[in-house]
């Protein structure tokens, strides 16, 4: 069955996509629309590149003013033009109009660093190694050349960030959208379509879906016919049932020229968050990684974890001492509650919390509660009246423990888990082993990243969420991680606690 966006078309695969009398009009409309989209895209790309180039020109001038207290004149204008030209060319090559990573702010600063270094190398080449005739005998300030790189990095980074935010705004208004057709009706295709709908900033729009294509279905004809009424930028395959012959016909179809074809890694049984497509001995391969947050992103995330956790422990040490003293004076038993939890990739670790229950409290109550949530109630749409993970009337909680839980103060010792690398500041809720044993396959995806002290589940009001929604939040975070998301969650945590959202 083929479904076109907004319910405009439903029917068997053999059904005509539109009446033949309207084909010419639809094709003409699609062509005009595509031409208009092309002009808008090139207009944005031109404005972005020239804008970044102007910022680079200003960066050299500012460096000259900072180091020598002079405005750039004469030969220094060559340096301004050289830096500006490098940045314009690199901005054009990076195609910011096509960047569709969620948020994408970090990527913009990475590009800014590349442009700053490239511009710096160009200035060194001009000033010290090769000079055009007009400036052959001119003596340049080394300080100006050296200062240009950091100044250009900061200013171009800010410029790229501003352009990216403008692009996100335009996409939310319906501009610069790439049209996608999804093939398949698997859980992966459903999740993909829902994610695309929820993340308008990526600039994707699903215009149609082909459900359960049988072996005899002519996918190439279906997509070709659909392309007469709507422009198709990409085709995403999320089905085991697409045959090799269908793939070959799809790629060879003239109407599909220029259309990018993708496949969801999970159709090969691999989790999307841990797969990267690369080349091995000349063959395209899918590489499975242990940690979905890799490279510089992982280093940045870990750096943020270590910096914030260590700083928080130092600043909050008087509060930690006061809580420890209050627990020892009001109840019998240890100050810290230690419990085995399941971390990334199922690795066990000992999680630390301030004890908020009576000593040696049995866990049968919580086991029964979680068992009911994760079996009979996993797909429920309404939250449990007592909340998902913490029952409001739990008889094991002490009077002081209720206060600690109300403001999430019992979670503070988990900062030590962060320092040890067992947890992150932001991530899914640390799971218990008997919870994990009850997980469905899709729910285990939440174990693809480090568990967190806080997370989407904390700032989204977990006492008001259904069990299924809670787990979907964790899975969504695990598969769409970004540093920007982490920062937003950290900033939203304290307001959420004060509103009693994180109870």
Explained architecture:
It is built from 16 helices and twelve strands. The chain has helices at residues 23-68, 76-94, 105-129, 142-172, 187-198, 219-226, 244-252, 295-315, 317-330, 364-374, 399-406, 414-419, 433-436, 456-459, 467-479, 483-498; strands at 2-4, 9-11, 178-183, 204-210, 234-237, 260-263, 275-280, 283-288, 336-342, 348-354, 424-426, 452-454. The strands form four sheets. The chain has a six-stranded mixed β-sheet with strand order 2-1-4-3-5-6, sandwiched between helices. A two-stranded antiparallel ribbon has the order 7-8. Helix 5 links the parallel strand 3 and strand 4 (204-210). Helix 1 (23-68) packs antiparallel against helix 2 (76-94), helix 2 packs antiparallel against helix 3 and helix 3 packs antiparallel against helix 4. The model is unreliable at 5-30 and 377-389 (pLDDT under 50).
Major sheet: order of its strands?
Answer: 2-1-4-3-5-6
Please, how many helices? 16
| Largest sheet entry | 6 strands, mixed
- Give the C-alpha Rg: 28 Å
Uncertain runs with pLDDT below 50, 5 residues or more? Answer: 5-30, 377-389
Tell me roughly what share of residues is in helical segments: 40-55%
């Amino acid at each position: 069955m083929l479904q076109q966006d907004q319910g405009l078309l439903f029917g068997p695969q053999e059904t005509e996509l539109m009446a033949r009398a309207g084909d010419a009009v639809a094709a003409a409309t699609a062509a005009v629309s595509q031409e208009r989209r092309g002009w808008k895209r090139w207009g944005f790309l031109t404005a972005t590149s020239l804008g970044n180039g102007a910022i680079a020109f200003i960066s050299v001038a500012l460096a000259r003013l900072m180091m020598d207290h002079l405005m750039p004149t004469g030969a220094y204008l060559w340096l301004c033009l050289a830096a500006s030209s490098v940045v314009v060319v690199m901005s054009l090559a990076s195609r910011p109009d096509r960047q569709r990573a969620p948020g994408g702010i970090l990527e913009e600063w990475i590009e800014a660093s590349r442009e700053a270094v490239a511009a710096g190398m160009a200035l060194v080449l001009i000033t010290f190694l090769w000079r055009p005739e007009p400036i052959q005998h001119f003596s340049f300030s080394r300080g100006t050349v050296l200062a240009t790189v950091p100044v250009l990095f900061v200013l171009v980074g800010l410029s790229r960030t501003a352009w990216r935010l403008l692009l996100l705004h335009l996409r939310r208004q319906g501009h610069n959208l790439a049209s996608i057709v999804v093939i398949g009706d698997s859980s992966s295709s459903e999740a993909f379509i829902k994610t695309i709908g929820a993340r308008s900033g990526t600039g994707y729009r699903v215009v149609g879906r082909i459900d359960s294509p049988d072996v005899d279905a002519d996918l190439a004809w279906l997509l070709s016919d659909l392309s007469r009424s709507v422009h198709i930028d990409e085709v995403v395959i999320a089905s085991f049932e697409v045959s090799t012959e269908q793939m070959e016909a799809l790629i060879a179809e003239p109407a599909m020229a220029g259309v990018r074809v993708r496949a969801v890694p999970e159709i090969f049984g691999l989790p999307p968050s841990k797969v990267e497509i690369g080349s091995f001995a000349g063959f395209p391969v899918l590489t499975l990684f242990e940690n979905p947050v890799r490279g510089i992103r992982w280093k940045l995330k870990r750096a943020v974890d270590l910096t914030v956790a260590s700083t928080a422990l130092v600043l909050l040490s008087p509060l930690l001492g006061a809580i420890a003293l209050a627990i020892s004076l009001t109840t019998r038993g240890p100050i810290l509650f230690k419990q085995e939890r399941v971390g990334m990739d199922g690795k066990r670790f000992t999680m630390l919390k301030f004890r908020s229950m009576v000593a040696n409290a049995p866990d049968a109550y919580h086991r029964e509660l979680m068992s009911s949530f994760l079996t009979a109630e996993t797909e429920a749409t309404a939250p449990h009246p007592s909340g998902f993970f913490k029952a409001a009337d739990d008889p094991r909680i002490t009077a002081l423990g209720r206060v600690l839980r109300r403001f999430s103060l019992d979670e503070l010792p988990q900062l030590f888990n962060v320092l040890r690398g067992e947890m992150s500041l932001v991530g899914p809720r640390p799971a218990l082993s008997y919870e994990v044993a009850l997980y469905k396959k899709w729910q285990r995806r939440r174990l693809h990243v480090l568990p967190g002290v806080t997370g989407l589940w904390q700032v989204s009001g977990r006492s008001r969420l259904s069990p299924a929604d809670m787990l979907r939040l964790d899975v969504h975070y695990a598969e769409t991680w970004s540093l920007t998301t982490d920062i937003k969650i950290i900033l939203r945590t304290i307001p959420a606690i004060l509103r009693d959202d994180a109870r």
